[in-house]
Design brief:
This protein has nine helices and no strands. The protein is mainly α. Keywords: Membrane, Transmembrane, Transmembrane helix.
Length: 268
């Protein structure tokens, strides 16, 4: 089952609008659309299916990020940083929670297929990501709270940056594990969904790391690179939701045709 070229289209859209998407009200529109994609994927599942809850959490990840942008733009001056960062933290609570739901759903049927090689690959890739998140998070905390005179806003920024990077690293590690279990046995389109989730977490972690390191690295193009990474992270997460929804829609539409074909074959 091969999905349409929606992944390439979403990525192209993100690259063409990377600068504006992460520097203005257009970002709110993209987060709204990303949340709608996650909600569409959720609604393709039955009410008692575990992945349904996971995709709703993905949708709320987008919506909380969009609300954070609106809060920063509209809230009173003294509350902008704290409120905006609180909403971003809420988004990054939904993000790993979604992966926990997906992992539990996968473990229900395929946990016995996990191999020693898969576990080794998970930690070979996951440990460096977790270590990088912890190290850069500590750098940000040191820079904002220890090396300078601390303030409430700086504390919110330092702690939320560290939490966001840790959440991205956890999601990356979790999706690598899902891929090592699912890739050998599941349909390629379903594996592609997990691959996009994994890529989104890696790109988001890269964007957060560069954001914290921006004051240490004297590169003129670093801000632009960070925006592109952030836009690509949004695009791949949105693409994962669209591909998941498309898979289930395609399966649902093909089921009546398969039943009709079996009926005709029995009559003949």
């Amino acid at each position: 089952m091969k999905p349409p070229r929606v992944i390439e289209a979403v990525l192209l859209l993100a690259m063409l609008t990377a600068v504006r998407a992460y520097a203005g009200h257009l970002r709110v529109l993209f987060d709204l659309l990303g949340g709608m994609a996650g909600a569409w994927a959720a609604l393709q599942f039955a009410a008692d299916d575990r992945p349904r809850r996971g995709w709703w959490l993905v949708a709320w990840t987008h919506w909380f990020l969009g609300l954070a942008q609106l809060w920063v733009a509209l809230a009173p001056e003294g509350w902008r940083v704290a409120g905006g960062r609180a909403l971003i933290v809420a988004a990054n609570l939904c993000w790993p929670a979604a992966l926990l739901v997906f992992a539990r759903a996968l473990d229900a049927g395929l946990a016995g297929l996990e191999t020693c090689r898969g576990r080794a690959l998970t930690w070979i890739l996951g440990l460096p990501a977790l270590a990088l998140a912890a190290w850069v998070g500590w750098l940000g905390i040191h820079e904002k709270l220890i090396a300078t005179v601390p303030s409430v806003d700086l504390a919110w920024m330092a702690m939320s940056d560290a939490f966001i990077m840790l959440a991205d690293a956890v999601v990356f590690t979790a999706t690598v594990r899902l891929l090592t279990i699912a890739a050998p046995v599941l349909d390629g389109a379903i594996v592609r969904t997990y691959l996009l989730l994994c890529l989104s977490a890696a790109l988001s972690l890269g964007a957060e790391v560069l954001t914290v390191l921006q004051s240490h690295l004297e590169l003129a193009a670093l801000g632009q690179i960070t925006r592109w990474l952030g836009a690509a992270a949004w695009a791949t997460l949105c693409g994962a939701a669209l591909v998941q929804a498309w898979i289930l829609c395609a399966l649902r539409s093909s089921a009546p045709r398969r039943r009709a074909s079996r009926t005709r074959s029995r009559r003949s």
